[in-house]
Write a structure and sequence with these properties.
Layout (H helix, E strand, L loop, with lengths): L3 E2 L8 E11 L5 E11 L9 E4 L5 E6 L9 E3 L3 E4 L8 E9 L9 E5 L2 E5 L19 E10 L5 E4 L2 E9 L2 E12 L6 E4 L2 E8 L5 E8 L8 H18 L7 E7 L6 E2 L4 E5 L12 H16 L8 E2 L5 H19 L2 H20 L11 E2 L8 H18 L1 H15 L3 E2 L1 H12 L8 H4 L5 E9 L4 E9 L14 E8 L10 E3 L2 E3 L2 E4 L3 E7 L6 E4 L8 E4 L3 H10 L3 H25 L7 H11 L6 H8 L4 H8 L5 H18 L1 H10 L10 H21 L3 H9 L3 H14 L4 H14 L3 H12 L6 H9 L9 H14 L1 H4 L5 H13 L4 H8 L10 H15 L6 H11 L1
Parallel strand pairs: 2-11, 17-18, 18-20, 21-23, 24-32
Antiparallel strand pairs: 1-22, 2-3, 3-8, 4-7, 5-8, 6-7, 9-10, 10-15, 11-14, 12-15, 13-14, 16-17, 19-20, 24-25, 25-30, 26-29, 26-31, 27-30, 28-29
The structure holds (3S)-3-amino-4-(1H-indol-3-yl)butanoic acid and zinc ion.
């Protein structure tokens, strides 16, 4: 495919006034009539043709103002429809007829079928698989939709907007008509038809309008939508209270489907969800599932304003809706749950997913300037780093000015397709602050590294911090400018209070935020009575790596006493990581593995502190992961050594803390009183973390087997099964538990995905054979994205030792899988392939095997644009 450049953006020559679509649904031969009213844009070339996008289409009929049009006036190919000699000034109507085959659509883009349900996915460029259309986000129009379908098979006929009417159409067929008055781009179009169950509720908006809420699921699953409905109502309320945003149609619908490429989709008034993010009850859903459902329901709902009412001018602006909406869903979850624990989870995710992307061959700016395949830019950089950039605007401006900027954005750009520049300008205008340098966060890829050193002049009472910032080179960007980095900080005095400097020089400081803006910056704090311990980047106020050699005792002081819980967790990680890296080195090069006694001491002190919430203590127990160690180590990584070193550290902690872990395990069960709220979930996380350590300390599967047998919810059941499978893969108890889990949930594919994932992450070289065996199981279905992600995806992304086998078999397996998935579902194939994005950081034997596997993919005869884009960038 050719490369699309931001610099080439031009508005369309024609303005689309109205869209009127009629679907005559048929599983293999659906007829689509599209009536489109256009007029030529003022100032546009009067001779310019109308060029519409298509993808695998064939034209069956074309009318101009309801009349015939000579064949010489247009050209149709599968990819485009060009019509010439159109009026210079007056509006005109084009009617296009296409026939499409939903049943044959395995890409899950456009109109497709899933378990007998008709369903659409149009973002980013799926609408052009339905009809010829100006399929770009800056073309907005109101839509009228008529759906005609077999009545018995399709009692439910849904589209965007408000319901106009419906009923019998002709013998055996029914129709329904919908009108969406809010102008929208084609990517927000949706249609759903089939035989579905529904759960209904209502929400009264802040201005007193009653909105009908409907969640559609497969029959028999209605009892599992209560949590999603509750999350939806809380989201609607929160957006009114925090952002002043009210819902704007008479009805809001969610449909859960079982074949979906991503998590969910924010189509106007008709969100379509991967059923994994809707269906929940204590028997089938873990606490993590509940939290994900809450977050994704909120995210899609919040898009109604950030994405739909104000959309993106072009796909380069994707972070305008995604980064902002992730920020909004993060804030929502923080308000619904524990803010500190939520922040820790976000930062863990950012560091384990986004930081590696930003440090590898797929690195790109939050607002890219070129792409080959837009589907490959729905990345953690656009989403999560995009959210962090929004968060930094809030940090720099403070809550009031941030709110004023958001209000201005909604007021100024409602109904428009906007850019990042438009967005940033609203904050500049609302605050009077120049955000030019700050905007580099949108344009420069790579995680900035901030190196810090400190000095204290006791007689003068002056404390000095010296900063150097460096943004590493990334593909296509070798030299970088210094960024505006807002660092929240504190200076802790030995007595536990915070120093209040009489003067600060060398940097702008607003409240507790220190603004770094130059490559080198020396900041002095006067009037400091005793040597302070610095706590830096509190709350992870900037998405940067900080290198600051702090004494472990100072870090332990922060970990035990900082006022900011997030900073306590961060300081603890800063104690743990060097120990884990050193242990990995020893495991590879030989030498006795030793662990700083402060590590276990601090962990035990914090985990045992009953004044702290259980969920936070559980985060302390979850030491940095093997992937975290690999990232910290940087290059020449040996996943087996990393694991061996980490296991040695875990063992020290497990033995030293055994008594505490036993107490935590006994005291934090929720048996008989399950509720999915954060406090109750926190107890289970703490208890199950303790179980993990006890399995190491005790060395036998008995406790986990008993926990498995007595669990009364999916969180405890799957946690116990994980401990059994990962710690005692060969034990008869494990075999029995795996079999009992399989038999109990064989009818529920979403739960079987957990069974696949637990086995796909059993450490060590045996995992591959097990994964291959599981793929032969009748429970596996290679054309369902959830199944493929649970087994193949989890193995490649989350089993460092199993996937990165030194003999390269893991990579060879993945290459075969990619080549098999690609012809059916390129998006899925490309996404799973990104699991190899850090291949250059591996030690040379593995890196060589990885390179060969990537070359094999690159050399395949027929590759999708999705996979060839990823593989080529990874090889460059
Ligand atoms: N905006 C949605 C993105 C999405 C998507 C993109 C490409 C292909 C399929 C897709 N399904 C959903 C989801 C969101 O960010 O809310
Ligand atoms: Zn989104």
């Amino acid at each position: 495919g050719r490369i699309i450049h931001l610099a080439d953006y031009r508005p369309t020559d024609f303005v689309l006034e109205r869209v009127d679509l009629t679907f005559e649904l048929d599983p293999t031969n659906t007829k689509v009539d599209a009536r489109l009213i256009f007029h030529r844009r003022e100032g546009a070339d009067p001779g310019a043709p109308l060029v519409l996008d298509g993808d695998e289409l064939s034209l069956s009929g074309l009318l101009f103002d309801q009349g015939e049009i000579p064949a010489s006036q247009y050209d149709a190919t599968p990819e485009s429809l060009t019509i010439r000699d159109l009026p210079a000034q007056t509006p005109f109507e084009i009617t296009i007829t296409t026939f499409i085959n939903p049943e044959a659509n395995t890409q899950l883009m456009g109109l497709y079928r899933t378990n007998g349900i008709y369903c659409t996915q149009c973002e980013a460029e799926g609408f052009r698989r339905i009809t010829y259309f100006p399929d770009r986000p800056d073309v907005l129009a109101p839509y009228t939709i008529t759906i005609i379908a077999d009545k018995a098979a399709n009692p439910v006929l849904l589209s965007n907007g408000n319901f106009l009417g419906g009923g019998g159409y002709d013998e055996g067929r029914a129709f329904a008509a919908w009108f969406d008055p809010h102008p929208k781009p084609s990517y927000l179009f949706a249609l759903v038809a089939g035989d579905l169950g529904v759960v209904e509720d209502t929400f009264t908006t802040m201005s007193g309008r009653e909105v009908a809420l409907k969640i559609y699921v497969e029959h028999g699953k209605e009892a599992r939508v209560g949590y999603a409905m509750d999350a939806l109502k809380r989201s609607m309320k929160w957006d009114e209270e925090v952002f002043g945003r009210e819902y704007d149609l008479d009805i809001f619908m969610i449909v859960a489907v079982s074949d979906f490429n991503m998590g969910a989709m924010e189509n106007k008034g008709l969100n379509v969800f991967n059923d994994k993010y809707v269906l929940a009850d204590p028997e089938i859903a873990t606490d993590a599932d509940y939290a994900n459902i809450e977050a994704i329901i909120a995210h899609e709902y919040f898009h109604n304003w950030t994405g739909n009412r104000i959309t993106c001018r072009d796909w380069f602006q994707l972070c305008l809706k995604e980064g902002l909406t992730v920020y909004r869903d993060h804030e929502f979850s923080a308000d619904q749950r524990s803010r500190a624990v939520k922040r820790i989870a976000e930062v863990r995710h950012l560091k384990s997913e986004q930081f590696p992307e930003d440090a590898g061959p797929l690195a790109h700016p939050v607002r890219p300037t070129k792409y080959r395949e837009i589907n490959n830019f729905y990345t953690t950089t656009v989403y999560e780093k995009g959210s962090e950039v929004t968060r930094m605007i809030a940090t720099i401006l403070g809550p009031q000015l941030f709110k004023a900027g958001m209000d201005l954005y909604f007021e100024r750009h409602d109904g428009e397709a906007a850019t990042i520049e438009d967005f940033v300008k609203c904050f500049e205008d609302a605050s009077g602050r120049d955000l030019t340098q700050f905007s580099l966060w949108y344009h420069q890829a790579g995680t900035p590294l901030v190196s810090v050193s400190s000095a204290f002049d006791q007689p003068k009472g002056v404390f000095t911090l010296s900063f150097e910032q460096l943004v590493p080179p990334t593909p296509g960007q070798s030299a970088k400018e210094p960024m505006h980095i807002p660092l929240r900080f504190g200076l802790l005095l030995p007595d536990g209070t915070e120093a209040k400097p009489t003067a600060i020089e060398g940097a702008e400081v607003t409240g507790d935020v220190l603004h770094l803006t130059r490559r080198n910056q020396v900041v002095t704090f006067s009037g400091i009575a005793g040597r302070p311990v610095v706590t830096l980047n509190r709350g992870f106020s900037a998405p940067v790596n900080v290198h600051f050699e702090q004494a472990p005792a100072d870090l332990a002081h922060i970990a035990r006493h900082d006022a900011d819980l997030f900073a306590r967790w961060q300081a603890f990680s800063d104690i743990a990581l060097p120990n884990l890296v050193e242990a990995a080195r020893k495991a590879r090069d030989g030498g006795e593995i030793t662990v700083d006694p402060l590590l276990a001491e601090t962990l035990i002190a914090v985990a045992g502190d009953e004044t702290l919430e259980p969920a936070f203590r559980a985060q302390i127990l979850a030491l940095p992961s093997e992937a975290d160690v690999a990232r910290e180590h940087g290059s020449n990584n040996d996943p087996d050594a990393i694991r061996a070193g980490r296991e040695a550290v875990l063992s020290v902690v497990a033995h030293q803390g055994a008594a505490l872990f036993a107490a935590l395990f006994d005291r934090n069960h929720t048996r008989g009183s399950f509720t999915p709220d954060a406090a109750s979930a926190g107890k289970r996380t703490l208890r199950n973390a303790a179980l993990g350590y006890l399995a190491i300390a005790e060395g036998t599967p008995e406790r986990a087997a008993k926990a498995f047998a007595t669990a009364d919810n999916m969180t405890d059941l799957s946690a116990a099964l994980t401990v059994l499978a990962h710690r005692f893969p060969e034990a008869p108890e494990t075999e029995a538990a795996l079999e009992s889990f399989r038999a109990r949930f064989a009818e529920n594919p979403l739960v079987i995905d957990k069974w696949f994932a637990i086995q796909a992450t059993i450490p060590g070289s045996g995992a591959l054979a097990r994964v291959e065996r599981l793929m032969e199981s009748p429970l596996f279905n290679g054309s369902n994205p959830n199944r493929v992600r649970a087994l193949v995806g989890t193995f490649a992304f989350s089993n460092p030792t199993g996937f990165n086998r030194p003999d390269g078999e893991g990579y060879r397996f993945l290459a075969s899988q990619i080549l098999e998935i690609d012809p059916k579902n390129p998006q899925l194939a490309a996404r799973i392939l990104t699991s190899m994005r850090s291949w250059r950081a591996l030690e040379e034997v593995r890196a060589e095997h990885a390179l060969n596997a990537l070359r094999r993919i690159a050399g395949a005869e027929k590759l999708s644009a999705d996979v060839s884009d990823i593989v080529e960038r990874m090889l460059n």
